[in-house]
Task: inverse folding
């Protein structure tokens, strides 16, 4: 016997600090105009130094539980999709489950880079569909600002911090329709943070940060994302035009526009927040989803496609019908202003790639 599965609650949390493109101009050979024209990004949220992923994951999860109307003890499993956990061990999922009071829950992290949230959704869905669990809390998020070379204009302007969450529950309605997951390790050198058991922590900080062949990733995405989207639509017995809302990984507005053009999609189908949030890796899709639900843009009965892609290379897509009501209390957190600049001109006496940030 199998069971239907639906998303019953969402939440998100981003750091309060807003960093505008103009802040990069003092530090590297770039301009606000280049960044906005080539990526669609105008600003992003960056965490203060003491903030770790669980500091964003915990409030996201609390909002999602509240939206779902569940007690933390109702949760059977917590999965956190991330590449930037609080620590290599224990998992951020275990830390988050404990802080939320999910005392009955199993917990693990899932590493599929920017595809991590949708990968985790699909894993969670299987546990509920088979009857093993009733309620699963899925979190997707990253704090990539701590793993960036702030002198590399090819990555520093793109990545940011944030987390979002979704509660999946056994349902009497037909929520999840179809999903597809994939990986191609032949593209492992396209986006990497080398730090790990092959490259243990060392004095060479250039091995602790994101390295990306941006143009190649861009080409891969524009060639493959339309095929993945068409594939998941087909598996759900839909066409791409049937989706009311499509949330692609928010890596670059030009990728979203190119995919949309290739598939002949309408602009009102695409949910976009890359202009305000930049690329929060595993956080982009749950943050955009929770924002759209919070704004009442997504309504019960709407058909959604969520599609992530990134380092691995990995990709994950799911098609679902939205069944949750609009969250009762506003999820949005207002930004603070008047802070010191985040990205300062480099101190040339410091040869490290991660000079201290002005905070
Ligand atoms: O989340 C994981 C998935 N990641 C992605 O999907 C990222 C995909 N890639 C991209 O979004 C784009 O490739 C980038 C935004 C990273 C780069 O944009 P692009 O239009 O592909 O630029 P490019 O790499 O082809 O570089 C064009 C020029 C180069 O100068 P030359 O060689 O033509 O003189 C770059 O050095 O732009 C230069 N450039 C910049 N100029 C000003 C690269 N970054 C910058 C910058 N400001 N920040």
Result:
């Amino acid at each position: 016997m199998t069971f239907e599965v639906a998303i019953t609650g969402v939440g998100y949390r981003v750091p309060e600090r807003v960093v505008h493109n103009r802040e990069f101009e003092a530090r590297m050979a770039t301009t606000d105009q280049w960044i906005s024209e080539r990526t669609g990004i105008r600003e992003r949220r960056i965490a203060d130094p003491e903030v770790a992923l669980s500091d964003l994951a915990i409030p996201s999860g609390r909002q999602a539980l509240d939206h779902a109307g569940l007690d933390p003890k109702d949760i059977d499993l917590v999965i956190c999709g991330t590449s930037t956990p609080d620590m290599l061990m224990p998992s951020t999922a275990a830390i988050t489950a404990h802080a939320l009071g999910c005392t009955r829950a199993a917990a693990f992290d899932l590493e599929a880079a920017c595809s991590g949230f949708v990968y985790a959704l699909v894993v969670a869905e299987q546990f509920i569909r088979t009857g093993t669990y009733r309620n699963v809390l899925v979190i997707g998020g990253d704090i990539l600002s701590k793993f960036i070379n702030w002198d590399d204009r090819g990555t520093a302007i793109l990545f940011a911090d944030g987390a979002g969450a979704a509660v999946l529950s056994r349902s009497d309605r037909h929520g999840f329709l179809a999903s597809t997951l994939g990986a191609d390790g032949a593209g492992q050198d396209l986006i990497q943070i080398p730090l790990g058991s092959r490259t243990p922590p060392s004095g060479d900080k250039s091995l602790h940060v994101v390295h990306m062949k941006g143009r190649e990733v861009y080409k891969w995405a524009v060639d493959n994302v339309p095929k993945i989207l068409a594939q998941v639509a087909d598996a759900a017995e839909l066409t791409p035009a049937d989706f009311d809302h499509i949330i692609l990984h928010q890596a670059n507005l030009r990728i979203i526009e190119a995919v949309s053009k290739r598939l002949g999609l309408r602009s009102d189908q695409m949910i976009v927040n890359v202009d305000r949030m930049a690329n929060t890796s595993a956080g982009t899709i749950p943050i955009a989803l929770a924002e759209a639900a919070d704004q009442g843009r997504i309504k019960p009965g709407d058909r959604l496609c969520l599609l992530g892609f990134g380092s691995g290379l990995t990709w994950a897509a799911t098609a679902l019908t939205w069944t949750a009501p609009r969250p009762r209390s506003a999820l949005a957190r207002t930004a603070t202003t008047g802070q010191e600049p985040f990205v300062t001109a480099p101190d040339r006496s410091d040869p490290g790639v991660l000079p201290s940030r002005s905070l």
